[in-house]
Amino acid sequence: MKKITAVIVLVVMLAAIIGLxxxxxxxxxxxxxxPGDGQSIKLGLDLAGGVSITYQATGETDxxxxxxxxxxxxxxxxxxxxxTEAKVYQEGTRRINIEIPGVTDANEILEELGKPGSxxxxxxxxxxxxxxxxxxxxxxxxxxxxxxxxxxxSVVCDGTNVISAEPATRTDTTTRQYVVNLTFDDAGTAxxxxxxxxAYNNGxxxxxxYDDAFVSVPRVNEPITGGQCEISGQExxxxxxxxxxxxxxxxLNVELEELSSxxxxxxxxxxxxxxxxxxxxxxxxxIMLFMICVYWVPGLASAFGLILxxxxxxxxxxxxxxxxxxxxxxxxxxxxxxAVDANVIIFARxxxxxxxxxxxxxxxxxxxxxALSAIIDGNVTTLIAAAILGIRGTGTVQGFAVxxxxxxxxxxxxxxxITRLIMNGFYGVGVKSEKFYGRAKERKILDIVKNRKIFxxxxxxxxxxxxxxxxxxxxxxxxxxxxSLEFLGGTSTxxxxxxxxxxxxxxSEVKPLVAEVTKDNDINISNVEGSKVNIRxxxxxxxxxxxxxxxxxxxxxxxxxxxxxxxxxxxxxxxMQADAIWASVVALICMLIxxxxxxxxxxxxxxxxxxxxxxxxxxxSCYAITRISVGxxxxxxxxxxxxxxxxxxxxxxxxxxxxxxxxxxxxPEEIVNKSVTQTLxxxxxxxxTTFITVLMLYILGVASIRDFALPLMVGVICGTYSSIxxxxxxxxxxxxxxxxxxxx
Length: 744
Description:
With 744 residues, the chain is α+β, with helices and mostly antiparallel strands.
């Protein structure tokens, strides 16, 4: 009966893997080949291409919640015309974010949405009989100051009085006309009725004035007293649609100013999707091979579990319509490497139990039981880092946090339940010999504590390299780190020229073109990847950005998808710096509290936090030495390594806690040395599997992902070092200090 049950379990698991794999294959295929077709995963702007804009309400006081809601509603109606996937959402009390994926006319959208000023209906003549506006041969223009028109009563009503403005086609007996239908509220109906009656009697027009220019000056053919009117005379439906759109956007209750904007070419995102999925596939294959070679039958079970883990994550992203960003893909790939961590801990425990000459079935039960606390504590602390990123981060950083957290939760499920079921299935069908599971070998105890001064000295050198390199950078490049726009503000333009260019050619051929547009020689130009070039300037106005785009496309025969542009104000950049400090401090405090509670000893918490600060500063050193751009993903990299490193440290501390109970009155240095030795294979193997996946991301990923992957690789190595050689020694030092005080 047990054998039949085991066969059923294995068949069900295999069927689940094949079934989910078939479904996920279609999702991945469509995401890579035909993104946005409804069957693919929803992609963020950095993958799908499009426009991202952040607005802030002007004025000293915060707008009311109703005004913000009305503004968001009207903006949502406006942007839906560009893409049904467009979304508008509020951030804080004064900001509105707009994301429009998949568009190609990015600068045109920025021009229309980047200036949502007020719109007014103005009489042709004032109360004194003189003209309020005249045609100057090119366009209609005001003949008086706008404040004079308001005082005179010549401003009939404004855009807030317009309930709706829609384009339409009207067919007469012989011709087709393109019109705009307007509907006014009660106040607008009364004012417009009186003004149009006067205008009709005098044979005059009423001008529609928006953003310091007239967008339409229609003649009044009859009094309009019912609150609805029609503006005719548009040459095409598109022209009618533009006028209706302008009237709607001019009716916003809140005046907005642009804080940041980003234009991403779809082609850049397409390349990132393909290379990232390829990196994930190769990373998974290498990890599966590694686990099978090292752990045999348990490794094979974990390989099946890893496949199912990947399929579940992809399925959940699709099912819950989670937007996938480039850092989000990095989060998935990183969590793949971390997914085997629980398996490594369990398998090591099982081998230790087998070495005690217990049966394989007993070893499996005991191994899972003893590994549970370390797995839970390690994953909870990593989830803390992901939660802080999700709360404090924005945009792509939040995307990374969501996928990382999702991966951690699913990995616990597959490791503790799925892999265990598969292992029990193998055992049930007759794979019972211990040779298929392995036996822990007696290892020589490493004397970590004896050499603690050497390890502490190495750590001090690593930590001090951060401020030293930051001082060097301040002298050479003017900043301690190579801050991106998110920290400094400005405009960044990335173009694919189509050929590799030396720095001298960039300075002689590209820089003068940019300087001619910006009227500023403070321009930073660098090669990014292959034929891609990055241009960083001061913050450019929309007109300057459009002019720069036109100049670059004409000079280098570029298509629109070859250009990626980002503009960030100084307001956003200062907040990014504050967020980086806030997130890191809060994450460390939360981890300290959690470890203190779980281990009931503040020395464990203090030792782990110092080790984490050590790892964070080494990451900062990496950024300072390599001069990788420091942006939003900098926070993600720091907190991810903090979460990863604390995971490894907790495994060692969990073993120290266990050995404190089992080894009686053994000397503290013996306990630390034995605990580190017992967990050494886990520390090395987990770091290796995580390093493999991040390395694949670095080798195959696009430039922005490589800039994220390199610090992660350094962090994995550093986190492994600090967990093995530093954390346990710090706990020992703190214990000795307390012991010395007690003796006094």
